[in-house]
Design brief:
CATH architecture of the domain at 206-241 and 291-400: Orthogonal Bundle
Structural class: alpha+beta
Number of helices: 39
Radius of gyration: 34 Å
CATH class of the domain at 206-241 and 291-400: Mainly Alpha
Shape: elongated
Helix content: 40-55%
Strand order of the largest sheet: 2-3-4-5-7-6
Number of strands: 21
Strand content: 5-15%
CATH superfamily of the domain at 206-241 and 291-400: Transferase(Phosphotransferase) domain 1
């Protein structure tokens, strides 16, 4: 057949590039009526006579012999670029034709009317003929399969792809099969609507409304990408909008799995499928495709939605030569400079106002999506959706730098009701405040892939079972934290909402998350019931919910099932390393008894008293006895001994606790060298007990590599780097930690001290006031505030903060510092004497700070030596301490740094 066609149609002399061009021209001609096609073909023949001759012969076949015409199209496709299936309802102005007739049966369906045909398929409106259910469907039938049975493989593959995609904005697959005559079919959701661009123009939608529709499209595309499916033919006619304004993506028939299964030879057999106007450069050139190819196609859609034009006009008259050449040589103009003459009218505005609205962010978003190099585009549909969401919310987009003036304008747009100033300077002041609170304290707008697991309610009727429901909640937090790009709030913040009566929107705002996982646990004998629901914090709606009744022995499998369901709903991907599974809290033996002991130990440890710590030690020891290879239990045992040595014990007893902590950490790492918790435990221990700063750095870095989303590790590592004088890095890591645990007051205080160390006093005050708001009775927070006021030289404010501090060593020092700058030397001396008499044995570093403020260098270094001898943890402040750093050029400062094992930094700014 190939030889016959080549002879009769003059195809044999065409080059490979001409075959490719011919296939594209055939696609372009599908929707033309005869008169329109005649004029088009006449213009083409003057530019490309060889292809014009071939096309005339093909069109002659079309009118005379439909079967041979289809075979000819197949022949072209095999030698060049496959023709994309035409879109129902948009195949042209003349009625589509088919060998089938209304009333005919295909499998269990009765055909009603032909919706459209072209390329490789035709689509019929059909109904179930066997009465199984009443529903109109769009029945897709592969026309060419009547001539080439091996195309059934492609059709079946499309069915399998569609069956995996269940999303409110993707047309659903209801059924699929092969009828008695061997004709495969797909029964899909029948969508009555108009193409995206047509619907928007008909409704005269403004730019914002169009962007909201496209945002839904991007959500559906990201959903498919997360299931390793790319669409490859995104265009207006494949995106329909019904009268209710609901978007549906159609036709994943040409989608290609990102990891093609062995034996899937369809692409090699039939060529590349594309629509030239919307295809990415790499798709046109036959390169490897990934999710960014669909991002490009959405970029074309965005350009067309905004301007009424496509970035490139691909038609026979304008394009002589290959599309590849055009894509390589023509630069896309900014949308704001290239409006169709009716663009303003179709968008309910004027041309001038539309151009002004597009200028800036929308130009940037569109051009980034349309970058010719995939690496320069948005990395995902979700990233593009985020920038559109930020634009609609009048917030800085990610695709462009955010200088102060730009942020100020954004702040003013989203806060118009509260801004009553006319000068830009006033707006800038407000913008700084808004931007700092929103970004600098680590509390940005909730990303879509963010979640907090609230403590599951204990419905067992026994208070003694509280540890079990808490344990499952914490394990879900740990499991979800193993997923890439998923922000998971830590236990400390999430558990603050135990038994809270606040609604989901309020909790979501406080935690900075878009979703909550909540539910309940009931354990009775050998059975358990777990109910879980995923809540959208934007509107309080339930996105997913399930109830599980399982034997207790299936606990681990149940946790996995819930984690997969939640991660799937949030489109999360597992961390791409070999060690994610090693971060599990399950015993290697699978012993539920050992796991249960671990949960009970953790329950008591989190209470925080010495008695509870010792009770927790007993349970951790029991877990290890039940499974001696339980590395996580060894790690947590190390942490408890270390905390006992630091906070509750002194002298020889503290050293004994440190020795036990060291042995437990070494055992954990021997069992699991890649367990993040074990590296964190050893890092904490050698920093506290040994002042081995560099050894601790090695452990923290490794822990962070293994568990990059762990807030505790981020905070501890930041604290260590601050002690090396790397305050800016400490600030960055602490912000990241706060993002995972935004209600952890101590971390805000730590952030304040680092900001104070680099003299960013306003930011430091914001951070410490947040800490005070969260935990008003915690010591040390108002002492930090007093130091901030001292740096501002505001004696009255410093004294007020010191007087409000919780009585104890922190207040004693704050008063000594505040009195020193107050001008009353007698009061200052008395406050210092009180500090020395009450707290010299436990706070020598704080006494050194007071002497530094008094400009007494000799006493300062004497008390620093005492602090080092006492292993005073305050030494970690040295290289960002505004009081001590006034002596950074004193030779004794460098000598002390060497003794303490800290880097010698004589150029640290004060």
């Amino acid at each position: 057949m190939d030889e016959l066609l080549a002879s009769s149609l003059s195809l044999k002399d065409l080059s490979a590039s001409e075959f490719s061009r011919l296939s594209l021209l055939l696609d372009e001609s599908i929707g033309m009526v005869p008169t329109e096609r005649h004029a088009w073909l006449a213009a083409l023949e003057s530019e490309e006579p060889r292809l014009g001759v071939v096309l005339r012969e093909i069109f002659a076949l079309q009118s005379g012999d439909q079967g041979r015409f289809l075979e000819t199209r197949e022949f072209v496709a095999r030698h060049g670029v496959a023709l994309v299936e035409a879109d129902p309802g948009l195949l042209g102005k003349e009625e589509p034709t088919s060998a089938l007739v209304p009333g005919e049966r295909v499998g269990p369906y009765e055909l009603e009317r032909l919706l459209g045909s072209g390329g490789m398929a035709e689509v019929w409106l059909a109904k179930r003929a066997d009465g199984a259910f009443k529903r109109e469907v769009a029945l897709k039938l592969p026309m060419v399969s009547r001539l080439r049975k091996d195309l059934e493989e492609r059709f079946i593959r499309e069915r399998d792809i569609l069956a995996s995609l269940e999303h409110p904005n993707i047309a659903r697959l209801y059924d699929g099969g092969v009828d008695a005559q061997g004709l495969p079919y797909l029964a899909m959701e029948y969508v009555s609507g108009a193409a995206l661009t047509t619907w928007c123009d008909a409704k005269r939608l403004g730019v914002a409304e169009r962007l909201r529709l496209l945002h839904r499209v991007l959500g559906a595309v990201q959903y498919a990408h997360d299931r390793r499916v790319i669409h490859r033919d995104l265009k207006p006619s494949n995106i329909l909008v019904n009268e209710a304004g609901e978007v549906r993506l159609l036709d994943f028939g040409v989608a290609k799995l990102l990891e093609e299964t062995e034996g899937a030879q369809l692409t090699r057999r039939y060529g590349r499928a594309l629509t030239p106007d919307y295809a990415s450069p790499e798709q046109v050139k036959g390169g490897l495709l990934d999710a960014r190819s669909d991002v490009y196609s959405v970029g074309v859609l965005l350009y067309e939605l905004l301007t009424g034009k496509r970035p490139y006009e691909l038609n026979a008259g304008a394009w002589v030569g290959s599309i590849e050449h055009a894509l390589d040589t023509v630069e896309v103009r900014r949308p704001s400079t290239r409006l169709e003459e009716r663009a303003g009218l179709d968008r309910g505005t004027t041309q001038e106002r539309l151009a002004h609205e597009l200028r800036g962010d929308l130009d940037v978003i569109t051009l980034k999506a349309l970058a010719k190099e995939p690496s320069e585009r948005y990395a995902s549909a979700a990233a593009m959706a985020e920038d559109i969401d930020r634009y609609l919310g009048h917030r800085p987009i990610r695709a462009r730098p955010a200088p102060l003036l730009y942020r100020a304008k954004k702040f003013a747009r989203r806060n118009r009701p509260m801004i009553g100033v006319s000068s830009l300077a006033g707006v800038v002041v407000l913008a700084i405040g808004g931007y700092e609170l929103e970004h600098r304290l680590g509390i940005p707008t909730p990303p879509p892939q963010s979640i907090a697991v609230l403590p599951l309610t204990n419905e067992s009727g026994e208070a003694s079972e509280q540890y079990f429901s808490d344990g499952i909640s914490e394990d879900l937090i740990m499991a979800l934290a193993q997923f890439r790009q998923l922000k998971v709030i830590g236990r400390s913040s999430a558990f603050k909402f135990r038994d809270s009566k606040e609604d989901s929107r309020s909790i979501g705002a406080k935690l900075g998350v878009a979703h909550l996982l909540e539910g309940s646990v009931r354990k009775s004998g050998n059975m358990m019931r777990v109910s879980a629901a995923l809540i959208d914090t934007a509107d309080g709606s339930t996105q997913w919910s399930e109830r599980y009744d399982r034997p207790y022995q299936e606990l681990f499998a149940l946790q996995d099932e819930i984690t997969r369901a939640v991660a799937g709903a949030l489109k999360a991907k597992l961390l791409p390393d070999d060690h994610a599974a090693e971060q599990s809290d399950r015993p290697p033996s699978g012993s539920l008894e050992a796991y249960n002991a671990l949960l009970q130990g953790r329950f008591y440890i989190l209470r925080g008293t010495e008695a509870d710590f010792r009770k927790g030690l007993d349970y951790y020891t029991q877990a290890i006895e039940l499974d001696p290879h339980y590395a996580l239990a060894w790690s947590w045992l190390s942490g408890v001994w270390g905390t006992l040595g630091e906070e509750f014990l002194e002298g020889a007893r503290a050293q004994e606790a440190y020795a036990k902590a060291r042995a437990a950490a070494d055992r954990a790492l021997a069992l699991a060298p890649d367990l993040a918790a074990a590296h964190l435990a050893r890092g904490e221990l050698i920093r506290i007990a040994d002042f081995d700063w560099r050894g601790a750095e090695v452990e923290y870095r490794r822990a962070l590599e293994l568990a990059p989303n762990d807030g505790r590790t981020q905070f501890s590592f930041g604290n260590l780097l601050a002690s090396f004088g790397e305050a800016e890095t400490a600030i960055r890591l602490t912000r990241q930690a706060i993002a995972t645990d935004p209600l952890r007051a101590g971390w805000y205080n730590g952030l304040a001290t680092y900001l104070l160390g680099v003299n960013r006093l306003d930011e430091a005050e914001q951070a410490v006031r947040k800490a005070i708001e969260l935990q008003p009775t915690t010591p040390s927070f108002r002492q930090t505030l007093a130091i901030i006021e001292i740096q501002r030289r505001d004696a009255q404010a410093a004294l007020a903060a010191a007087q409000q501090e919780i009585p104890g060593p922190w207040q004693d020092q704050a008063l000594a510092l505040a009195r020193q700058i107050g001008g009353d030397r007698g009061a200052a001396d008395a406050a210092l004497q009180t500090l020395i008499e009450k707290d010299a044995s436990i706070e020598p570093y704080q006494i050194a700070q007071v002497y530094a403020l008094r400009n007494d260098a000799t006493a300062t270094f004497e008390w620093l030596d005492r602090a080092l001898s006492n292993r005073d943890a305050g030494i970690v402040y040295l290289l960002y301490d505004p009081f001590i750093l006034r002596y950074r050029n004193d030779p004794r400062f460098a000598a002390f740094c060497r003794k303490a094992g800290l880097p010698v930094r004589q150029e640290v700014s004060s």
